[in-house]
Specification:
Elements lengths: L6 H11 L5 E2 H8 L3 H13 L11 E2 L8 H7 L3 H12 L7 H12 L2 H8 L2 H16 L1 E10 L4 E12 L5 E6 L4 E6 L5 E8 L10 E2 L5 E2 L3 E7 L1 H10 L7 E5 L2 E8 L2 H9 L5 E4 L2 H12 L2
Antiparallel strand pairs: 1-2, 3-4, 3-7, 4-5, 5-6, 8-9, 10-12, 10-13, 11-12
Helix pairs in contact: 7-8, 10-11
């Protein structure tokens, strides 16, 4: 194992074989697009450095973590639960932090996208994420079928150029070809995705969108201010932990939020859920939005 040219390949093999299930050699060869001969060499390499891979029964392989060298198996092994926690933690980082994209790439380079989707997503959504991941990798256009937009209140197909997936595989950032702007799309609101296998034409306009503390994406922020009770503060910290950076204690039992949001929908839902616990300050736009929403009740 001295002349490994692709360490990522070996790490993904280890991830697969150490996930607690047994995998047939033919399936592994198909997943990684390798020959049986290369597979046999890989198993030999892993055994050489200390991974305990028992003699296969009916062609099924796995890594026995109990007997593998501890420093190796602890370095590369990650449970499905740990994976989901890592992905959520990465997504909680502000988009302006340059480390976020690096962490996303490292998570995906360590673990095959098929394994991620199978671990933390419903099978149908896993298929959608896999199609989007392939389109991102090959710079291709896709059709998002029957997307349910809460913003426009429409259900229709969207032709887009995928840019990136969030680390927790819940959101897609893509360039909307019809509207000519980048947008965020929720995976759960997609019926299916069709890869057109046509090269992306608007990559010069691709860019990652920022996300405000209330999980709304955009480019131009609107400043808002409000004060809140202890009850509202506790709920804000629990439901929107990124808001902590913009929150201070003004007086005993009174906290203030001052920051930017891209749309009023996110913060508006929070405010409307706590009548009498929040006081709006110095933002006529947000006040007007709240009043308009109250009239709809």
């Amino acid at each position: 194992m001295n002349n490994i040219s692709n360490i990522d390949f070996y790490l993904r093999i280890v991830r697969l074989l150490s996930n607690g299930r047994r995998h047939h050699r033919d399936n592994i060869c198909e997943i990684f697009d390798i020959s049986r001969r290369k597979f046999d060499r890989t198993i030999s390499d892993l055994r050489e450095v200390g991974f305990d891979i028992p003699r296969p029964k009916e062609g099924y392989y796995y890594i026995d973590r109990r007997n593998s060298r501890s420093e190796l198996q602890e370095l590369v092994y990650i449970t499905n639960e740990e994976l989901a926690i890592l992905a959520e933690a990465i997504e909680a980082i502000d988009e302006t932090n340059t480390l976020k994209q690096d962490l996303r790439k490292k998570l995906r380079s360590l673990i095959d996208v098929d394994l991620i989707t199978q671990s933390i997503l419903h099978p149908r959504r896993a298929r959608i994420v896999k199609t989007l991941g392939e389109a991102i990798q090959h710079h291709e256009q896709v059709i998002i079928e029957r997307y349910r937009s809460g913003h426009s209140n429409e259900i229709r197909d969207r032709k887009v150029e995928p840019i990136s997936l969030s680390a927790n595989m819940q959101m897609l950032c893509a360039y909307d070809i019809e509207d000519r702007i980048p947008k965020q799309y929720k995976i759960t609101r997609m019926r299916d995705v069709q890869n057109l296998h046509k090269p992306a034409q608007y990559e010069a306009y691709h860019k990652e969108l920022r996300t405000d503390p209330f999980r709304i994406s955009g480019t131009a922020g609107k400043k808002i201010r409000f004060t809140m009770s202890l009850l509202a503060y506790n709920l804000l910290m629990e439901e929107y932990p990124l808001a902590a950076e913009f929150t201070t204690e003004n007086a005993p039992g009174v906290w203030a939020f001052e920051g930017e949001v891209f749309l009023y929908e996110g913060v508006g839902r929070f405010i409307l859920s706590l009548p009498g616990e929040i006081t709006l300050l110095a933002d006529n736009g947000l006040k007007a939005y709240i009043k308009a929403m109250i009239k709809k009740f």
